[in-house]
């Protein structure tokens, strides 16, 4: 995966789908903010 070019904002990141999405993004080296 390429370097993160910024910070990703994920709304609903505390839910079932959002939490798995955030985990995958974080594992891939992305900077993630959960709202």
Please provide a written account of the structure.
- By secondary structure, the chain is of the alpha+beta class.
- It has one domain.
- The chain has one helix and two strands, in the order E-H-E.
- It has one helix spanning 16-27, and strands at 7-10, 31-34.
- The protein has a two-stranded parallel ribbon with strand order 1-2.
- Strand 1, helix 1 (16-27) and strand 2 form a beta-alpha-beta unit.
- It is flat, with a radius of gyration of 9 Å.
- It starts with 6 loop residues before the first strand and ends with a strand.
- The mean pLDDT is 89.
Question: How is this structure best summarized?
Answer:
This protein has 35 residues and is of the alpha+beta class.
Helix-strand layout with pairing:
Layout: E1 7-10, H1 16-27, E2 31-34
Parallel strand pairs: 1-2
């Amino acid at each position: 995966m390429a370097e993160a070019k910024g910070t990703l904002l994920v709304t609903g990141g505390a839910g079932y789908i959002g939490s798995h999405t955030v985990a995958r993004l974080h594992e891939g080296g992305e900077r993630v903010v959960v709202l």
